[in-house]
Amino acid sequence: xxDPVQAPSVLFVCVHNAGRSQMAAAWLxxxxxxxxxxxxxxxxxxxxxxxxxxxxxxxAGVDISAELPKALDAAAVLEADVCVTMGCxxxxxxxxxxxxLDWTLQDPAGRDMETVRRIRDEIKxxxxxLMRELAEDGRPAAG
Length: 143
Prior knowledge:
The protein is of the alpha/beta class.
């Protein structure tokens, strides 16, 4: 485990914090084994995490069944070293000097399991690339 003060912090943001951002946060927490501080939030949080996202992640060995959508606040963005947005558009606060990435991903809500699995796997690949970037920046990104 990396010293939390030295660990990079990543915030994943989507509209409902019920699918894409939850899967991305879970992948990063799982793959980094605690070497990255991971948070997720939504600009208009849903009532629950999408059941199909929970099922798809469980198939990959990652349990997000206890997660709940959380509301985005400016403090979370300010605390993050990297803010990854996923379809929240102008509702995501932007602060000068912050590093932002925008991942264009299909929303898993209402999609069939084959589509949700594809989204899950696309998110995993993006998270793995982000971990490599964090490591290149000289900040720990793998446990």
